Amino acid sequence: MKVAIIGYGVEGQAAHKYWGAKGADITIRDQNELKGLAPGATIKTGDDYLSGLDDYDLVVRTASVKPWLIKTKAPVTTVVKEFTQKCPARIIGVTGTKGKGTTSTLIARILGEAAWRTWLGGNIGTVPLDFLSKVRANHMVILELSSFQLMDLDLSPHIAVSLMIEPEHMDWHRNLREYVAAKGNIFWHQRPEDVAVYNAHNDYSTQIAQLSPGTRIPYLESPGAKIEGDRIVIDGVEICRTDEVGLLGPHNLENICAAITATWQLVEQNPEPARRAVKAFTGLEHRLELVRELGRVRYYDDSFSTTPETAIAALKSFAEPKVIILGGSDKKSDYAALGRAVKAANVRYVVLVGQMAGKIKTALEEAGFNKIIMGPSKMPEIVSSARALTEPGDVILLSPACASFDLFANYKDRGEQFQAAVKALR
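Predicted structure:
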């Protein structure tokens, strides 16, 4: 069997291992050079890496590759599609613009507290093909699914969860309609016995949930989990008080409600697993992560914030005066709402960096906010600039609202450099 794998990131490498173990004749195709990589495979790189695909029995598209670029008569699959076809266990799939990783992890932790054997993978970093051989029918698989992974998926999870959806990846998708439709695939191929969990306060999430022929359950409203005053409740049962939650920010209360709703029947309506998990879970790295407190100033790494909406959510997580670091590379975002949020959010100063600094500066000034510093390009100097603007009791927040590719390798590199610079302060 001749298999072409398009793209050689983490998914491409997992696909190489998986189909290589089946004895396939593997060709790796990537636009970039792959020196010393892909042992045992034929390699084709360069601008014509997508030519001649009719010569294969199977073409594997990895998530970074736009599906409409692949022209072939051969069947085309993906890592996620292969996994969903072969997985013997039920799958809980989670999508949304932001909060997918946090919600997926919390679902796994709630089920773990209820003694389920769980597997967590997908866009969160672990390629599910890597653990497929270990999954058994009585296990539960949780997959974080991006629009890139969903857009050509023809199988939907048994329990599908859509968090809030806002415009994102407009530099990759051809338009907003395509982006939302890709998210809709998480529901579109469900069966009547399946479950669709959706954000009742988000129009796009509510709309795409109607594609499911299964049982549709909203969260933030009954019968799903919701916030009543200072309590998280479901079916009239209190899970915990909101001040007992380990995660920061009102947006994470929404993610918690989604996770509780998705797992409520699986834990047999027992509040204890959710109660224990929600209190203990303090979040994933680079998501409102407290780095340190120095001189009564707290430093938070929210480098995973790559959209205006996530930066707005971060601002709402702190009542204290803030110095926020904004800016990075372009994702075709609109910063008008972010400008208004900064104006309303007790922000002492904004430090602007990167390619989008000018565009964000315009949005801030149009909103009437003028305490703006045009920052340097190196993280130690960026952190020092922010520190000089603070007073005791303040928060310094790296929540860029932009991608990272102008100054850093990726959001993790940006967050790691921020943490290193903060920890080096004296």
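Summary: The CA atoms of residues 235 and 318 lie 30 Å apart.
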